[in-house]
Amino acid sequence: MRNIKLVLAYDGTEFAGWQIQPDAPTIQGTLAQAIEKLTGEKKLPQGSGRTDAGVHALAQVATFSTESSIPTENFLKALNSNLPPSIRALEISEVPSSFHARKSAVGKTYRYRIYRGSVCPPFLTRYVWHYPYPLNKDAMAQAAEKVIGEHDFTSFAAVDPERGREEAVSNVRKISSSEWKAAGDEFVYTVQGNGFLHHMVRNLVGTFLLAGKGTVPPDEITRILEARSRAAAGATAPAHGLYLVSVEY
Q1: Could you tell me which residues come within 8 angstroms of residue 30 by beta carbon, excluding any fewer than 6 positions away?
Q2: Using one digit for the tens of pLDDT, what is the confidence trace for 73-82?
Q3: What are the φ and ψ backbone dihedral angles of 223, each rounded to 5 degrees?
Q4: Catalytic site residue 52?
Q5: Distance (Å, rounded) from C-alpha 195 to C-alpha 180?
């Protein structure tokens, strides 16, 4: 039995997220179908985490076991020929049986893109949040710095009905980097941490936007964290501006 590691990129627009669902196209389900076509095995690849409907990935990591003897180089080419153009396997390797895409991960990096131009080009609209209204970028940058370090991020976590009682209830995460940068007509948020809660990055972006609008002072982010209440934070930013950039092991 071989343990295979995949690095994937995908456009999440037409998918109902990563996790397999009975009546909707998902990344995990589509990948499982492609693997079955190649190996004849019904395998459910495990991802580093679940991306929501509409969220994209530049380097999602997945693992699955197989008895297939297809060399990895050939497997990569054959897998891509069985996947839709919106999902690409970028890398494939054989890893020790102890390696698990989710359990072995020690950190992730996410990026969120806001397009600031007055008119969003049609070929960008699926990949950015178009927000052409006035924003104080310095205030947003100051607000983003407030979440660096180890905090309880309950205020920025969506209520997850799929989270079972057996799972750890701690919402404490450690953020090592949190910053906004201008990139042409875009204002881009990049955050790196040891883990992220459901909707956490999108909720952070929605709250930082309030700082940019002058509704919430940057220092208020500390109080929002301490409140440990979703009601204290801002609205959830749209999914299509978010990217899983990388997973660290």
Answers
A1: 15, 83, 84, 87
A2: 999 999 999 9
A3: -65, -40
A4: yes
A5: 19
Can you list the domains of the chain with their CATH numbers?
Answer: 2-95 (3.30.70.580), 107-248 (3.30.70.660)
Among residues 23, 52, 185, 219, the one annotated as catalytic is: 52
pLDDT at 40 over 50: yes
Predicted TM-score (pTM) of this structure? 0.94
Q: Quick one: pLDDT band at residue 165, thresholds 50, 70, 90?
A: very low
Tokens matching residue 11:
């456009």
pLDDT for 160 equals 64
40: number of Cβ within 10 Å: 10
Asked if 105 and 194 touch (Cβ cutoff 8 Å), the reply is: no
